Amino acid sequence: MLARVGRTLPDGDLDAAKEVVALRAVQRKEKKAVKLNEEAAKSKKKAVKKKATKKAVKKKTAKKK
Question: Range of 42's domain?
Fold first, then answer.
């Protein structure tokens, strides 16, 4: 990865190439963290909805009795 980035920079600037690689790694991790947060939020929303449905069903069956 470093060599590939280094070739695209003028004079094969190694420090700049290292910075680019590090930056890309950080961006990749941030993107993954955002995705995980979204999945967790979706999961939590689903759980809350399921709990509410259970509660409503319990209430309805209690009224019938």
Answer: 2-64
The secondary structure of 3-62 as a DSSP string is HHHHHHSGGG-HHHHHHHHHHHHHHHHHHHHHHHHHHHHHHHHHHHHHHHHHHHHHHHHH
Name the CA dihedral angle for 53, 57, 60, 62, rounded to a multiple of 10 degrees. -130
pLDDT digits (tens, 9 = 90+) for 21-56: 899 999 999 999 999 999 999 999 999 999 999 988
In the numeric block, which tokens belong to residue 60? 């309805």
Q: Are 2 and 17 in contact (CB under 8 A)?
A: yes
pTM: 0.53
